[in-house]
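Worked Example 4.2. Consider the chain below.
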Amino acid sequence: MKVAVVGATGLVGTKMLQVLAERNFPVTELIPVASERSVGKEIDFKGKKYKVVSMQDAIAAKPSVALFSAGGSTSLEWAPKFAEAGITVIDNSSAWRMDPEKKLVVPEVNADALTANDKIIANPNCSTIQMVVALNPLHKKYKVNRLVVSTYQSVTGTGVKAVTQLMNERKNEETEMAYKYPIDLNVIPQIDVFLDNGYTKEEMKMVNETKKIMRDDNIRVTSTTVRIPVMGGHSESVNVEFENEFELDEVKQLLEESPGIQVQDDPSQQIYPMPLWAHEKDDVFVGRLRRDETQPKTLNMWIVSDNLRKGAATNAIQIAEYLMSKNMLNL
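Applying the procedure from the previous section yields the following structure tokens:
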């Protein structure tokens, strides 16, 4: 099982290497890939050193699977070249997510859509992944009609530059700015660029990706995405209007019984999900479950997950694990 990690030196690529090792994915040969300026550098994986190689050399090595986390333009250029060589690409950028010919996959929700012919598979947006994991068991039972989601997203979602900005600001040091404004002791109600409709690209990703993953174009979604000065994961306040009536105890039970979800919901003990607890974990944490008392059949929930893990690296590797279990990878 040869595995290429494209963007191996970045935040998500580094996390992919960590998760591959932790989950004991059966890597017989690792092929780390990065930009030309990183070629020749060495990275550690499971106690061994591997040299970073170029895209062409990675294709020539014929890995079974290539985990891409190198940005949209790189994916648009190179993913088809890997696919043409018979290599299955699992891409973490936004490049292929809304392509009607490509599958957009969260294993707990729609892995069954995958076939051996899918050579470019899209990994969804981090904030979408954790939301649909939590919503899927409820959608099956009660049918989601409408979602109102507000996110509280970690600086790690932007990358190393943003983490550096936050840490330097906290030390009162001069810093290169990842954002237009300071992020320490601040909240920035903009993630990605603004579109003509006044929403940001991140907000519309949540709208469109949710419908595609959950295979239901009738779900209405409205989103506000916000960057906050935390590190451990993304948090979301989600207001869910169902078609059918629900009981809170049953909602809790459905969530507790669903793979990849941990319920942390005990107001009497002040127990609820937080990035502090989600950090370096693969599960989606759900709490603050309560009825919306302003209208019928509507639930409020609070969802937290480590955006570099389940929101990116872990989800991609879970896709690879599923393909491997179904003998869909070329070995």
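The mean pLDDT is 97. DSSP finds ten helices and 14 strands in the chain. Compare this with Example 4.1 before moving on.
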